[in-house]
Write a structure and sequence with these properties.
The chain contains four helices and four strands; from the N terminus they run H-E-H-E-H-E-H-E. By secondary structure, it is an alpha/beta fold. Strand 1, helix 2 and strand 2 form a beta-alpha-beta unit. Helix 1 crosses helix 2. The longest helix has 15 residues. The protein starts with a helix and ends in a 17-residue tail after the last strand.
Length: 153
């Protein structure tokens, strides 16, 4: 049985690669390697060296590494909301992400914890509008009104 953290990483990897098997108990079917690497952006709510973030980052990378035929580029961002909060800072961060990833948009976003998911939901209309988001460590209540949208699983 997979732990919830490992199950989330397993599902994330297969969502991005399009190889999610009918059950999470078996391996995915082999697929042809993509022509370009897939980009995975992980947005953490807290600082980089928080032990939970280090462990989660390692688990995510291991999950994606299970299929050596897939090339994955990882990008990590840290909101550090405990030390840098507030509306002005949040807007600057959204603008920074929009500019930084304009030429290299992610194929998948993983939000780590509720503040990261809330940030993405709040700025969804202008930031990564078509990129799938896999939430980890946040409940549906973090989605607010977005949870009522039938497009949101």
């Amino acid at each position: 049985m997979l732990s919830s953290s490992r199950l989330c990483c397993y599902v994330c990897a297969h969502v991005l690669l399009g190889t999610l098997p009918a059950t999470t108990n078996g391996p995915a079917l082999p697929t042809a390697p993509p022509s370009a690497p897939k980009r995975v952006l992980v947005i953490y709510s807290d600082e980089r060296l928080l032990p939970a973030n280090v462990i989660e980052d390692e688990a995510i990378r291991k999950a994606f590494a299970k299929d050596p035929t897939q090339r994955i580029e990882f990008y990590s961002e840290f909101l550090d909301v405990a030390r840098f909060g507030g509306e002005v800072h949040e807007m600057r961060q959204a603008d920074f992400f929009r500019e930084k990833y304009a030429e290299r948009p992610p194929d998948l976003i993983i939000s780590a914890a509720q503040p990261a998911l809330q940030f993405l939901v709040k700025h969804r209309s202008t930031l990564f509008t078509q990129v799938p988001v896999v939430a980890h460590g946040a409940g549906r209540e973090a989605l607010g009104d977005v949870a009522a949208d039938p497009e949101v699983p």
